[in-house]
Specification:
By secondary structure, the protein is α+β, with helices and mostly antiparallel strands. Helix content is about 50%, strand content about 10%. The protein is built from eleven helices and seven strands. The protein has helices spanning about 1-10, 15-25, 130-140, 150-175, 195-215, 235-245, 250-260, 265-270, 280-285, 285-295, 305-325, and strands spanning about 30-35, 40-50, 55-60, 75, 95-100, 105-110, 115. The strands form two sheets. A four-stranded mixed β-sheet has the order 4-7-6-5, with helices on one face.
Length: about 325
Amino acid sequence: MATSFIIKTMKPIRSPNLFTVLRSRYLSSVAAAHEAQKDGTFSSFTFDDKGKDKHDSIYVKSRNSAPKSETASSVTMPMSFMTGSIVGKRFYKKVTTRESDDGVGWSVMLDYRTLKTPSKRPLKLPTLALAKAIAAEWEYQQTDGIRPFMMPLMKLACTALERVPLTRTKIIENLMKKFNQDLVFCRAPDDNDLTSCVHDRQVEKIDPLLDWLKSEFGFQPVVYSSFFGGKQEDGLINAVENLLKKTDDCELAVIDAIAAAAHSLVIALGIFRGRLQIDEAIELIRIEEDLQVDRWGLVEGGHDLDIADLKVQISSATVFLGLSRRI
């Protein structure tokens, strides 16, 4: 189901017009690619932002002792890979996977180049299944440019390998800071015609998740109608925080990504624990907005893009979680 969600969601994104909207709406800069070949044992793929002097380069270094066509090399993605739209033309023909040199983990190969993260660390993935999925994202790229927003699994892998180990404490603190204002704890008032239908839908869809939260952690969550949030029991807060501290880097990266997209740590934990499926999570996230769309209609270029973006974020994170787990 998770894979079908991603495939269905990505199909309309192949439209050139939709690329333009997505770039202008979600991405901060557009990079132009210039491939620069140098003499000797180095070749670089250089990317420069329009109107800026700063350059982000992909450096390929080969061994001196072997001919160019037979050497083992590495390719490092520029930092703009994590934020930019198109970071250069496709410079490789074949994408494969292989076991890491130390025998722990799996690597992605672009021709003879071993893929590295933006900070030049080896992209060492925990399972072969995840390595093949990320390889498929690179294989899917078109010849006219590499589009990072078409590689959600690659971006999650970079986050798990680079950001989480260095900022684990801050990530957990940030998640817990927003816990009291979680989406599922906020309940629409039931005393007027404008919000009563939202309240009824929340009771129907969200209350079962709150019941699960109580059975999982042993504390009854508190719901509220204030925009400023409420206060959950210290026991519930401590139990959730302890769970986050026990996660590995890939799991915490997934929980953080889903919580950011859903505005809900509880929904992220529901997916993490297997309580929620992808479609169920998306339905909970969009309860209020879907009711507004049913009442007032859908805004093309607005609501439809929001739905597509949400499906990609939730589906890709869920797929990443499943593929990263060693069975």
